[in-house]
Input
Amino acid sequence: MKLRILAVGHKMPSWVEQGVGEYRKRLPRDMALEIIEIAPGSRRGNDDPARAVAHEGERMLARLGRDDHVVALDVAGRQWSTEKLAGRLDTWRHGGRNVSLLVGGPDGLDQRCLSMAAEQWSLSALTLPHPLVRVVLAEQLYRAWTLLVGHPYHR
Output
């Protein structure tokens, strides 16, 4: 199974690359983590934010695998404990499909992405900066995996 984070944004600071990279290398091969950057829609001047979100949605949908299990990260989604995430991760792993986790831009995810997602997950009720979301998401996926295998990281 591959875990794929499809995230709107580009040119992340080096600390994001380092943070995500650290957890990516800790995960086992059978749970490889990949980040796919989706170019943000134009938000200059009087550009309509809905149009930007729609363009981001098109780009995101085009990058999904045909049989991916899709999880949309959305403020209106369910909040999961680490234990609940570990259970979800175990279910995903035994389902035999790749998992794509969708992270929208500053105006959220396109409705088409939300509609096609099998699950909607909220990392927090707090508003998090998009670069930080990548690191938190990578760390939580790693933490959930350590819980599944009895690794002492999760204490």
